[in-house]
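re: the backbone from monday

yeah here it is again, tokenized this time
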């Protein structure tokens, strides 16, 4: 079953707790491009590499007028450790109750070591300055992904 595209749709305002003791509120970012990348779990190999790639291109995202946020179901405490260990210059959003995941339809049944498990499908959403989804990537493969997202940001 495929998830319907949300490209072109306005994202409902939401708020969530982030690292650094902050609250993310989408409406506070009107006028900015926002990159939300959803990843399965802190401190796992693919998620670490994905975060490193967004970290390494962070200056370019900023220069293009975009704010980057990573989001998973992990706790703020877990996020704080992951962010510090990896030197991420952006905040991580904690979504343990899956409210934000539900807004974007990223929860999926996946095969993990031969078992069906429910988890986040690695996905990224580029939200324009008016709060609409300009582009979405689902079922993301990590290599080259952050650079592809940066290219989309720069072409806006």
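seq for it, each position gets an aa:
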């Amino acid at each position: 079953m495929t998830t319907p595209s949300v490209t072109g749709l306005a994202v409902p305002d939401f708020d969530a707790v982030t690292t650094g003791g902050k609250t993310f509120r989408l409406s506070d970012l009107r006028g900015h491009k926002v990159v939300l990348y959803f990843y399965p779990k802190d401190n796992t190999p693919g998620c670490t590499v994905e975060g490193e790639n967004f970290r390494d291109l962070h200056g370019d995202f900023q220069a293009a007028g975009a704010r980057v946020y990573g989001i998973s179901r992990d706790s703020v405490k877990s996020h704080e450790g992951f962010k510090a260990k990896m030197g991420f210059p952006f905040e991580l959003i904690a979504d343990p109750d899956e409210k934000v995941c539900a807004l974007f339809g990223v929860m999926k049944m996946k095969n993990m070591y031969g078992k069906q498990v429910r988890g986040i499908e690695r996905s990224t959403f580029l939200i324009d300055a008016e709060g609409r989804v300009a582009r979405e990537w689902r079922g993301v493969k990590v290599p080259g992904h952050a650079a592809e997202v940066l290219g989309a940001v720069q072409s806006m």
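The chain has one domain: 15-154. The helical segments are 45-56, 58-63, 76-86, 99-104, 145-154.
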